[in-house]
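Hi team,

Below is the intake form for Transposase family protein from Streptomyces beihaiensis. Please confirm the fields before the structure is written into the shared record.

FORM ID: S-0412
PROTEIN: Transposase family protein
ORGANISM: Streptomyces beihaiensis
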Amino acid sequence: MKKQNSLAEGPDGLVYTARLPLSSATLNYLADLIRSHLKKIRSPWRALPPGKIAGIVLAVLRCDQRPGGLAGGNGVHRTTVTRWVREAVGLLAARAPRLDRALKKIARSGGGVVLLDGSLIRTRRRTGKENRKNYSGKSKCHGLLVIALTDDRGRLLWVSAARPGRTSEITACRHDQLTDKLRAAGLGAIADLGFIGLDDADDPDADPAVITGYKAARNRPLTPGQKLSNTVLAAVRAPVEHGFAHLKNWRVLGKLRTAPKWATTLVRALLVLTNREVAR
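The structure came back. Fields below:
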């Protein structure tokens, strides 16, 4: 009997089509960005047209498709797809709102408060010295911490830089001078109990920039009024969880396999795409 050594699917493999759960407006928006960038750098030629490139990039970001698989189905090399993804992510991240501008926009629209929260984006376990700083004792896994602000309807306004998982939420907010910028814009933020102690105003009579609930102690249980206050605040800040849910619909954030230095650019690019999808 003659031995069969060829692959069952043939030398070229199998190619299939799939549907992306995204709007055509998002695809056209990204394609226009790529087209304008190519015109700006005077490099109009690519192996595929901008619309096809945009579809490949969105497949990587939304469905976490492997660049090697997409490259084989489109007749290009894997490194070409990786380069396209990084190029598009950089273009999108450049359009992410800055903290001070986002707060001023909310103030001009008549808003009085924003919602504040943090979330951990899981990553692979690092090796060597990179191992411990990305480990979150709170979540018991490796990841990167991201702080986000949303409006009262849960629409994302701003995301911070991605920091090692061992960083506390208060430390990350102080690094971004969040309370000072909230006061400068005349806004307040509603946060959970993890942000108690963030608002360290020198003037005790000043209005708080960050409003949190009450935390019980072993010898100091909560009063009925404090419990009611916690319930009301929890209901008010619930939409911030919707904002993170929309952001994490991009499956590339399920478990990052990229360098942590690139995670900030990736998250800010996904913020722009998320707002395009939610606003449609």
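SUMMARY LINE: Residues 6-10 have pLDDT under 50 and may be disordered.

Thanks, M.
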